[in-house]
Amino acid sequence: MTADPGPEAAPRGESPGRRSRGRLLLIAVVVVVALLAGLARWASRPQQVANLVLAQAGSALGLRITARGVSEYTLRGTPQLVLRDVTAQREGDASPLLTADRLLLSVPWSTIKSRGREITVHRIELDRPTLDVSALQRWLATRPPTPQRPTPTLTDGLAITEGRVIGEGWTIDGLRADVPSLAPGKPVRARLRGRMQAGETRMPFDVAATLARPEMPAGLGVAGDVVVERPDWRMPLDVVLRGRPDASPALALHAMVLRAQARYVSKSTSLPFDLGIAGDARYVKGLHIAPFGLALQRGGAIPDLRAGGSLDWTSSLSLRLDGRIERWPQSWPALPSPIGRPRGPLPLHLDYAGPTDLSGETALRLASGATRFDGRLRLPRVLAWLDAPPSGTPLPPLDGRVSTPRLEIPGATLEGVEVEFSDD
Predict the structure, then answer these.
(1) Using one digit for the tens of pLDDT, what is the confidence trace for 115-137?
(2) CA 421, 413, 394: angle at the middle one, nearest 5?
(3) Taking a C-beta distance cutoff of 8 angstroms, is the pair 159, 180 a contact?
(4) Which residue, 14, 30, 47, 165, shows the most beta carbons closer than 10 Å to its own?
(5) Beta partners for 344?
(6) Is the pLDDT assigned to residue 332 strictly greater than 80?
């Protein structure tokens, strides 16, 4: 009779405890392999990863962000996510705030592991993005006030190629922007190139910009080349601009000062002069500068002028200035005494309301003592007069009336004179 061994006997040389631990290890390995297989199956679908990232970003920003094109990502080395046909739009808004053909985001593992406590990004690239300024402002107006958040660090830069910006009556096309790096408390430098267009006016630009630090408020400086181009003339500008930007509640540039060495160039005329503009600028359905200061100097045929007022550029242009002509241009004809040699500056009032190309009628009022001039002019006609050969009319094309208590002409002195003349 054979004795019952009881429970299953362990193999020779193996204890029951070691056998149990082996089973638990086998079960754990099977579970881990199954989880990894499921994760690999999910992660093998880049669109699912992209949708998750975009859903989290959209929730944080209050936007609906989608990527309709084929997405891809890389986890080896530095993780990278590439999204295509990206659209960011506020719920209920008819226009997308931002679209882009391609967006690349390169983020180090340290940022991913910190779950947002550390915000370091290696590189961001945007190909053919389009930004709608009006939609941007509508979105900014809905953002609740938030406490100051840490400034992100961008180690390998931001690059924008073939960008487009859409404003009220104007666009910027062919925008290229390069930002080498971004770090808290340190200057941010950028190179910006593109061309602005409003109607028949084009404005190519190539400038360098420096922001004192990413945290607001901070000073901004811009320097470079800008060219204003019209069908019949152009004006190159060597520009230096400074101010203090602000994005709440409206896009603004406070304490703006612009200085430029300019040159008006037409078919037969080249007139250099210095240009200065100062004021507080803000953009709300158009550009508004108030107070607005204007200075022209060393212009030869362009008068030295200092004036202040306001400028509103929306679908049309409104410009109001009060100031003085510091110097009567030497190339302009000398007028009869006493207005021909005014003692001191000539007080000036200018009022324009019309098309943005300044082709409408401008009201102009000048005074020299008791002598007054009230007239109207059209800038294209005045520019054509400046461009005319010397044999043309010696008087600028103006409509108006001059009144003076006394006028001296060769061989006579006239009292109580009023003269009316017209562009014709």
Answers:
(1) 556 678 889 999 999 999 999 99
(2) 35
(3) no
(4) 165
(5) none
(6) no
Burial of 45: CB neighbours in 10 Å, binned 0-12, 13-18, 19+ = exposed
Quick one: pLDDT at residue 287?
A: 94
More confident residue, 344 or 99: 99
Cα 174 from Cα 166, distance rounded (Å): 12
- Any idea where the domains of the chain sit in the sequence? 41-157
Confidence of residue 1 (pLDDT cuts 50, 70, 90): very low
Select from 173, 146, 148 the least CA-distant residue to 162.
Answer: 173
One-letter identity of residue 205: F
Q: Which residues of 66-78 are buried (b: 16+ CB within 10 A; e: fewer)?
A: bbeeebeeeeeee
Give the tens place of pLDDT for each residue, 343-399. 678 899 999 999 988 899 999 998 877 888 898 999 888 888 777 766 556 667 888
The Cα–Cα gap between 202 and 226 comes to 10
Q: How far apart are CA 223 and CA 209, in angstroms?
A: 7
Question: Residue 216: which of 124, 149, 312 has the closest Cα?
Answer: 149
Give the span between the Cα atoms of 265 and 203, in whole angstroms: 15
- Residue 6 reports pLDDT greater than 80: no
